[in-house]
Amino acid sequence: MKTLFLLMAALILMGCQTNQSPSNLKENATFPVGTAIRAHQVVNDSSMQTIVNKDFNSITLENGMKMYAVHRSPNQYNWKHVDDVVRFAQQNYIRLHGHAFIWHSGTPGWISEMQPDSTMLDKIMEDYILTYGSRYKGKVAGWDVVNEALLDGTGEFRKSIWYETMGEGYISRAFELAHKADPEAILFYNDFNIERDTVKLHAMLRMIEKLKAQDVPISGIGFQMHIRMDTDEKTIEYALKKAAETGLQIHLSEIDIIFNKHDDTPGGGIQIHDELTDEMLQAQADKYQWLAEAYIRNVPPEQRYGMTVWGFSDKYSWIPSFFDLKDWPCIYDEDLNPKPAYYGFLRGLGTSK
Ligand code: G3I
After folding, report:
1. Which of 99, 234, 250, 284 is the most exposed place for a label (fewest CB within 10 A)?
2. How far, in Å, is the centroid of ligand 1 from the Cα of 332?
């Protein structure tokens, strides 16, 4: 009886050990591990603050640093939320990643209402990036300077107001200005689906080679990495390898992994799974682990800017509202408890040691 009791106690202990993280995400990796957050979450929400401080050493403001959030009208800037988050990051020794200077969806309405010609729009861009980048010089480690400039499927330039008004040169101009504002900051081109759409990937790589040949100060590539459980792993590996061959910093900048599908448009969710099963949770854990391992396998240590999840809790994921889709993309559940995905990610990160 006593032997049986001891055996059971040992088994319970072993079970606890496999479920218990050896430490936390950030200490289990040799590169920064980040999360997107909303300003109020790190200013007012102590349960969110606790998790951010425990697991992450890099943060990205999910929306609060976008142009529409800081430059709401001409000649007027709203720095409050950014200042709050800078303070939080500094007090807690957390890296702040800037997202994003120029993004078609982040552009405030007053710009198109003005119907600017190329000279006017160039001046708007110049004032904005120099004012903003200089204000946070030394406080923001890296910037997504240009976000989502290319189209899926063809890799052509997106017909944003920036492209339509200033031509392709808006991209190099944005990087030059960002570099002038903060010469130490790491400057990224950031996009989605480049891990799965090889036409778009190669268009991006050609664009980056051209920028480098022109001595444009680009220093990183951001893979948003909004993936699905069935996103092809060989293609992801290929994309990471090709991107790493540029020698630039590589950031997995907006990671989440969904079970269902969508067509990339607002409201375009395709509900396949209504309920979350244990098998699905385990498969998601394996996918998070695999993704961390794939990053470590394909990106040399000196190019690892980090892996950032686009929010850590299913409670705040952008997916349900954007795609009108029920899903569970994150590593913590809606009650802020770590999911199997958390432990999968933790195991994957641990292979960097
Ligand atoms: O804060 C208001 C709230 O007061 C209002 O009641 C509510 C009603 O719609 O809207 C709230 O604002 C929303 C905001 O997210 C905060 O939840 C905006 O409508 C909504 O458009 C905004 O969506 C964000 C989206 O970018 C557009 O900026 C998502 O949170 C954010 O996750 C998403 O992030 C983007 C990255 O920046 C770039 N890559 C793709 C990624 C996902 O779309």
Report:
1. 234
2. 20
Write the pLDDT tens digit of every residue in 96-130: 999 999 999 999 999 999 999 999 999 999 999 99
31/347 Cα distance (integer angstroms): 14
Q: Is 254 tagged catalytic?
A: yes
Distance of alpha carbon 338 from alpha carbon 91, whole angstroms: 25
Yes or no: say if 33 and 312 are a contact pair by the CB < 8 Å rule: no
pLDDT in tens, 143-173: 999 999 999 999 999 999 999 999 999 999 9
| Pocket probe mutation, ligand 1, options 99, 322, 323, max atoms within 8 Å of Cβ | 322
CA of 254 to the centre of ligand 1 (A): 14
Residues 216-259 have pLDDT tens digits of 999 999 999 999 999 999 999 999 999 999 999 999 999 999 99
Contact 312, 257 (CB under 8 A): no
Residue spans per domain, the chain? 31-350
Active site residue 113: no
**CATH number of the domain at 31-350, out of 3.40.50.300, 3.40.190.10, 3.20.20.80, 3.40.30.10?**
3.20.20.80
* pTM exceeding 0.85: yes
Q: Give the number of the atom of ligand 1 that is nearest the alpha carbon of residue 36.
A: 32
Using CA atoms, how far residue 179 sits from 122, 137, 182, 185, in Å, is: 16, 10, 5, 7
Q: Which of 62, 148, 176, 195 is catalytic?
A: 148
Asked whether 38 lines ligand 1 (CB < 6 A), one says no
Segment 336-346 shows an average pLDDT of 98
